[in-house]
Amino acid sequence: MTRVFSGIKPTGHLTLGNYLGAMRQWATVDQHRSEALFCIVDLHALTVDHDPARVRRLSRQAATLLLASGLDPDLCTVFVQSHVDEHARLSYLLECVATDGEMRRMIQYKEKAAREQRRGGSVRLSLLTYPVLMAADILAYGTDEVPVGNDQTQHVELARDLAVRFNQRYGHTFVVPRAMNPAVAARVMNLQDPGSKMGKSDDSGPGIVYLLDEPDTVRKKVMRAVTDSGSEVVYDRESRPGLANLLEILAACTGGDPEQLADAYDGYGALKRDTADAVIEVLRPLRERHQELCADPGHVEGVLREGAARARGIARPTVDAAYRAIGLLPAESEDGAVALNAAR
Ligand code: AMP
Ligand code: TRP
């Protein structure tokens, strides 16, 4: 069966972008058709300035929201990255395969490092090596497919390159993964700034719909979305990005097509009203289920504990094989005897 792996960072409250660009496909498609693992990648949240208590809180909340969005622990594995040592173990080996130049070419690194420097802050080394850890997340599980929004395609390409290079140098060890982007709303943009993605780590609240926003708040945010000059409703990402974003969100929520939807509207007002309604309806069951799960935190903890155990069982043999292939001496042989003794 196809193995699917994806991850979500606990760096902020999850947004409509996370849901339409990733989580919804995980719940409605991926967990049913493949052997799927979904990971709260908390180690990745430490690559930028962070508050320890907040990362803990957001990790728990992300786990709860993943289950609320429909991930079923009987169908897939939901777990926290730092609970499985194999990610960090493999990341180091892959750092020995990746190059400095390769890392510095990553668009997300360039953007985030520039932003950090503009603020006068320092750039953590882990921000540079982040894509290697992400490659380790993917490769440790023999992943075939990585469903992500298209902002992550470059990182998945890197994981492919590292897998191929490792296999060529040290013998076949890793499955070469590929990225899978959802067809509609692969990139949900900020409602106040349609030139940039609706990202959970951003500060601009009014342009971001959070999954746990009250319906009234969602409505206000959508009604206040910036649109472009001109009053005709046409779907054109280049010249009318604000409008295109609304049409794509509406299409993603209702199963329609942005171009056809554009033909159905004469003005912005009705389009915004319908988009707000559609988003509220999509989020309603998720909010309700989230509330139920919050009343039973032991359940979520249990799911994460079992998920980590299952994940470890899958990652361990692959990462051990990589350690042997790259030239490291095994600590113990298969039956637990010290390898050195066995070799004598
Ligand atoms: P992140 O929020 O960066 O941890 O991303 C988690 C997943 O959500 C990744 O697959 C991203 O590609 C996806 N994602 C995040 N923000 C958006 C967005 N605005 N539009 C579409 N997908 C997104
Ligand atoms: N870097 C991804 C993001 O910002 C999150 C992530 C970390 C991930 N590891 C992963 C996604 C492995 C897919 C597979 O969205």
Bound molecules: adenosine monophosphate, tryptophan
CATH architecture of the largest domain: 3-Layer(aba) Sandwich
Shape: globular
How many structural domains are formed by the residues? 2
Strand-residue proportion: 5-15%
- Compressed to H and E, one letter per element, the order equals EHEHEHHHHEHEHHHHHH
What radius of gyration results from the CA coordinates? 22 Å
Return the average pLDDT rounded to an integer.
93
The CATH homologous superfamily of the largest domain:
HUPs
How many E-type strands? 5
Structural class: mainly alpha
CATH class of the largest domain: Alpha Beta
Low-confidence stretches: none
Task: Report the sheet with the most strands, covering strand number, pairing sense and barrel closure.
Answer: 3 strands, parallel
Number of distinct helices: 13
Q: Give the quaternary arrangement of the chains.
A: single chain
Order of strands across the main sheet? 1-2-3
Helical coverage, percent range: 40-55%
Topology:
Elements: E1 3-8, H1 16-33, E2 35-40, H2 52-68, E3 76-80, H3 86-95, H4 100-104, H5 107-118, H6 125-139, E4 145-147, H7 153-170, E5 178-180, H8 215-223, H9 241-254, H10 258-263, H11 268-294, H12 297-325, H13 339-343
Parallel strand pairs: 1-2, 2-3, 4-5
Helix pairs in contact: 2-11, 3-6, 3-12, 6-7, 8-11, 9-11
Tryptophan (TRP) binds next to strand 1 and helix 6.
Describe this structure in words.
By secondary structure, the chain is mainly alpha-helical. The chain has 2 domains: 3-181 and 296-343, Rossmann fold (3-Layer(aba) Sandwich), CATH 3.40.50; 205-294, Tyrosyl-Transfer RNA Synthetase. 54% of the residues lie in helices and 7% in strands. The protein has 13 helices and 5 strands. It has helices at 16-33, 52-68, 86-95, 100-104, 107-118, 125-139, 153-170, 215-223, 241-254, 258-263, 268-294, 297-325, 339-343; strands spanning 3-8, 35-40, 76-80, 145-147, 178-180. It has a 3-stranded parallel sheet. Helix 2 (52-68) links the parallel strand 2 (35-40) and strand 3 (76-80). Helix 3 packs across helix 6 (125-139), helix 3 runs parallel beside helix 12 and helix 9 crosses helix 11. The longest helix has 29 residues, at 297-325. It is globular and about 70 Å long. Tryptophan binds next to strand 1 and helix 6.
